[in-house]
Amino acid sequence: MNQLAHVLRKVGKQIGFRAALIAILTVMLALLAAVLAPLILYDLSIKIGADAVDDILTILASSMLAVTTFSMTAMVTLAAGHRLAHCLLRKPPPPRKARASAWTGRYRSTSCWRTF
């Protein structure tokens, strides 16, 4: 029993399991909506209308686009900043003539200095 609980806890923490669980619950909810659709009163569906649903979906799509744009901008900025900081924290390489004669080994790579 203790091993089973440990395995379930370990599997439950994996992101693939969570995504699969959410997908299964979404399909079950769609099937439940199809079963419960005949129980909704006709007058209620006329009052709400397709225009209200269209407005709500437009708001949701706009919000999701804004969040995605912000997240992508943050990731790109972080990646570029990390690369730039990595290069700036090292001392610049010596001039080309001095590099061959006075090589001390402390300048490991000059490739990042060529990109900035």
Description of the structure:
The protein is mainly alpha-helical and 116 residues long. The protein has five helices and no strands.
Order of helices and strands: HHHHH
Radius of gyration, CA atoms, in whole angstroms: 28 Å
**Rough shape?**
flat
In whole angstroms, how far apart are the ends? 58 Å
Helix content: over 70%
Instruction: Count up the helices.
Output: 5
Q: Are there runs of 5+ residues with pLDDT below 50, and where?
A: 98-103
- In total, the number of strands is 0
Name the beta content range.
under 5%
> Quick one: biggest sheet?
none
What's the number of structural domains?
2
Q: Structural class from helices and strands?
A: mainly alpha
- Mean pLDDT across the residues is 76
Short précis:
The protein is mostly helical.
Please give the structural blueprint.
Elements: H1 2-12, H2 15-36, H3 42-88, H4 96-101, H5 111-115
Pfam family, one: DUF2254
Keywords: Membrane, Transmembrane, Transmembrane helix
InterPro entries: DUF2254_membrane
Comma- or semicolon-separated keywords:
single chain; 116 residues; mainly alpha; 2 domains; flat
